[in-house]
Amino acid sequence: MSSSPSDSDAEIRTVGGIATGVVAAIAVVLSAGALIVASNSSGSAPPLPTGTPVAASTAPASVAVELTEFSVSPATLEVAAGGTLEITNAGAIEHDLAVRDAGVGTAMLGAGASESLSLAGLAPGSYEVYCTVPGHDTSGMVGTLSVVGDGDEVVAVDDDHADHDAEEDWAALDAAMEETILAFPAATEGLGNQPLEPEEIRADGTKVFRLIAERFDWEVEPGKVVEGWGYNGQIPGPLIKVDVGDNVVVHVENDLPMGTDVHWHGVRVPNDQDGVAPLTQPLIQPGETFTYEFLAREPAIGMYPPHHHGQMKLPNGMFGVFLIGDLGTDIPLPTGRTISGKEIPEEIDIVAEIPMVLNDAGNIGLTINGKGWPATEPIVVEQGDWIVVHYYNEGLQIHPMHLHQMPQLVFAKDGFALEAPQWEDTVNVAPGERYSVLIQATDPGAWAFHCHILTHAERHEGMFGMVTAMIVEEATA
Ligand SMILES: [Cu+2]
């Protein structure tokens, strides 16, 4: 193979002496992107005539609604046309409230957060309201909404915005956003994806690893310490990389308060090593150790989450990256080709191979590699460098990952090299999927790199969650 990944231990180069001004540029770039999207999406709603009075109605103009695990209270809502719902998340995890099939809903609200939801776009009639977090509606977070009015009048529009302006401190909102953007990059305790060395390499070459499933404190963002569930004190768990043909042994010690197992997602293993208790193995009880053993037969861009109660354990941090084989040889790179007019040279030097593990729920919430902005790790490269990013979605929702300015060449899906790699500037990654992309750092500057579901990157309190930056330094020589 002609390409030459320089270094199988390719690493993320972290930010060093990055000038605050350079990082601040991210603010401008990301905010601009958000504005464009916001104006596009609002363009789809028909303009409403202004100043038309609200229809006479006995229904209240405003109703308070409380969200908890897992109910919407009250579950039967009656509001005058043009009214509002005053929604508070009184639960312990994130929720929102949306009107089904109506394009009306709140942002994702953290515990304790509130939002006033205008129903001005809804015609009189009956609607269903629900929490859009997957599974929450079927768990009970649904209700009915009656919008009461005559049907042919148009709802009122606040001509001078005076009411809204009195409620909202716009300058404070701007200041909060600026402050949270300029806080990047922020130091926190703990770093995931650290390469795990075998604790033993046997005479026959078998590589022996040890994973400890445990709970520990995890600093998701500066000062926000949560109960992490993970492996060896890291979120994501330690990165395991072996060669094609290796015999692999992994001892899994269970220090959790409940049973567990380990599923080798995207890795070809015998059925009794697949980690689906109690079908393929007994559940590993608290205090017990279970040993997995398999031959690394094929290249893989895999991951190792638990399967038993994965819906609870993964969102709390239990997942890790499992790689078999090397880029450029076992997993071919699309070098020496021209794709959509862009030429990829015959010889490229991959300076960093970066796992980007996405999560969005549970104790750790919206994160990249177990950290939320501003504690996410910047990608620091020199102009002209090539990098590979492997996206892993270990969460419950899709995440369209957008890097400003520099396109991403999607060359592998779930570890399989694509026959027809394609350039994208936004790569949508669904739960369980892995996409591998090749990026050349062509343009100097600090470039925002974020999930494009805007509420995964910004909230009332400012920037947070699934945002990092690619910092491209000018080439020195
Ligand atoms: Cu997202």
What layout of secondary structure does this protein have?
Layout: H1 20-42, E1 62-68, E2 71-73, E3 76-80, E4 84-89, E5 98-99, E6 104-105, E7 114-118, E8 125-130, E9 142-148, H2 162-167, H3 170-182, E10 200-201, E11 207-221, E12 224-231, E13 240-242, E14 247-254, E15 289-295, E16 300-303, H4 310-313, E17 321-324, E18 337-339, E19 342-344, E20 350-361, E21 365-368, E22 379-382, E23 386-393, E24 399-403, E25 408-413, E26 416-424, E27 426-429, E28 434-440, E29 445-451, E30 458-459, E31 462-463, E32 467-473
Parallel strand pairs: 1-4, 3-9, 11-14, 13-17, 20-23, 22-32
Antiparallel strand pairs: 1-2, 4-7, 5-6, 5-8, 8-9, 10-11, 11-12, 14-15, 16-17, 18-19, 20-21, 23-28, 24-27, 24-29, 25-26, 25-28, 29-32, 30-31
Bound molecules: copper (II) ion.
CATH architecture of the largest domain: Sandwich
What percentage of the residues does DSSP assign to strands (E)?
35-45%
Shape: globular
Which strand order does the major sheet show?
A: 21-20-23-28-25-26
For the sheet with most strands, the description reads:
6 strands, mixed
Helical stretch tally: 4
pLDDT < 50 stretches: 1-57, 151-155
Return the average pLDDT rounded to an integer.
Answer: 87
CATH evolutionary superfamily of the largest domain: Cupredoxins -  blue copper proteins
- Please give the radius of gyration in angstroms: 25 Å
Count of domains: 2
Q: Would you count the extended β strands for me?
A: 32
Query: How many angstroms separate the termini?
Result: 28 Å
Stated plainly, the CATH topology of the largest domain is called Immunoglobulin-like
Q: What structural class do you assign from the helix and strand content? A: mainly beta
CATH top level label of the largest domain: Mainly Beta
- Bound compounds: copper (II) ion
Helix share, percent:
under 10%
